[in-house]
């Protein structure tokens, strides 16, 4: 049984793990106006920096690492700072063994309006608000589209998705009465789950009645000879003790006052 337990432990320790590394985008958007502030990209695992992972992109059929290509970002601590210029670029995280995170496509708009939509996946059951934001002026009545199908209009330039689920995934865009349609960006929805799941605890099943009887019989087989041997030893000891009913123990006490001495013999009866 010890060998079996050791084998199970080895299997659990050597089981492959699924990476929880993802590409973090700050601000958490997929669309930007040209000339807007830089975007910060980083590889994270459960909210912490993922060591050994690199932000990458593909351009002209070549895969480039952040900071290694002349026009692909600059490293600032654990972040890749990117000044967006191309109409659309796709980024992801990758480690030396080839594991990859989900990919995020970021669009740069030349038009007058963009759709503010999360770059990171949203959790099922949460509420998500999409904004149709003009480059100049205040938000106004906007029209929202998913997978080229009109969803409706938002009087303040926003569209609320309540308690999202997988059916809400798709390509979203927006427009206004005076602005042409924005680029399309995909909303990704993920089920809530812990980034690191531990191995389930397996409780042993309750013993069956037949097993309980068998265990009782085994205990009796082991216990009864022990009782018989103990009784036999006690009987032998009692028999041998009968021949010497008295045990004499003599204790000598030290001298007392007036240099008197006393020998005291104490006799114990068993």
Automatic annotation (TrEMBL):
This is Ig-like domain-containing protein. One of its GO terms (molecular function) is transmembrane signaling receptor activity. Residues 1-20 form the signal peptide. It comes from the Eukaryota. Residues 180-208 are annotated as: Disordered. Keywords: Disulfide bond, Membrane, Signal, Transmembrane, Transmembrane helix. InterPro entries: Ig-like_dom_sf (IPR036179), Ig-like_fold (IPR013783), Ig_Fc_receptor (IPR050488). Coiled coil: none annotated. PANTHER family: FC RECEPTOR-LIKE PROTEIN 4, IMMUNOGLOBULIN FC RECEPTOR. It comes from Oreochromis aureus (Israeli tilapia).
């Amino acid at each position: 049984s010890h060998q079996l337990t050791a084998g199970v432990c080895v299997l659990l320790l050597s089981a492959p793990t699924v990476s929880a590394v993802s590409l973090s985008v700050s601000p958490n958007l997929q669309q930007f106006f040209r000339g807007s502030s830089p975007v910060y990209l980083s590889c994270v695992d459960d909210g912490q920096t993922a060591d050994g992972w690199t932000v990458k992109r593909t351009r002209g059929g070549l895969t480039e690492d952040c900071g290694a290509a002349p026009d692909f970002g600059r490293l600032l601590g654990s972040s890749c700072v990117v000044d967006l210029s191309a109409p659309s670029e796709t980024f992801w995280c990758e480690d030396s063994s080839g594991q990859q995170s989900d990919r995020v496509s970021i669009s740069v708009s030349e038009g007058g309006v963009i759709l503010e939509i999360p770059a990171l996946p949203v959790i099922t059951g949460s509420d998500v608000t999409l904004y149709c934001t003009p480059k100049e002026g205040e938000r106004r009545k906007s029209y929202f589209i998913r997978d080229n199908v009109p969803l409706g209009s938002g009087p303040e330039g926003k569209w609320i998705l309540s308690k999202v689920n997988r059916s809400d995934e798709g390509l979203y865009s927006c427009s206004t009465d005076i602005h042409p349609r924005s680029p399309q960006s995909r909303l990704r929805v993920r089920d809530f789950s812990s980034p690191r799941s531990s191995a389930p605890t397996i409780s042993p099943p309750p013993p069956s009645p037949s097993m309980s009887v068998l265990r009782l019989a085994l205990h009796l087989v082991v216990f009864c000879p022990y009782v018989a041997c103990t009784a036999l030893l006690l009987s032998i000891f009692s028999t041998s003790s009968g021949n010497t009913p008295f045990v004499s123990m003599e204790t000598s006490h030290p001298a007392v006052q007036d240099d008197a001495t006393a020998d005291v013999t104490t006799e114990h009866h068993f």
